[in-house]
Amino acid sequence: QVQLVESGGDLVEPGDSLRLSCAASGVSLDYFSIAWFRQAPGKGREAVSCLGRDDHSTYYAASVKGRFTISRDSAMNTVYLQMNNLQPEDTAVYYCAADAWVSICSYLFGNQRINFGSWGQGTQVTVSS
Length: 129
Fold this sequence. Notes:
4-stranded antiparallel sheet, globular, 44% strand, mainly beta, 4% helix
């Protein structure tokens, strides 16, 4: 397991951008596939994006494709989620998760019920005018 800390959540207006960070200490995130999930009040958890461990493949939910970008900075040991053109429906607590399984992203976005081994505590994103 790895300890993950999310940051970057904020209250923004529709059309604004935010960059969320998922940082780890003590172990390199290069050894993990990293996913971002979100959970809005009264709704289930939704997979937003995933970055594969070895092939750096990226996956996005249809609702965020073209607006969100996941990336990894190995030097900073951080994975980012750049979120552009935010909309009220993006309001949620955003969590990052890590797992050493190299293929986990393809299973996650293949509609498989997959659980990641490590989770952060979440960061709140609120989009409102």
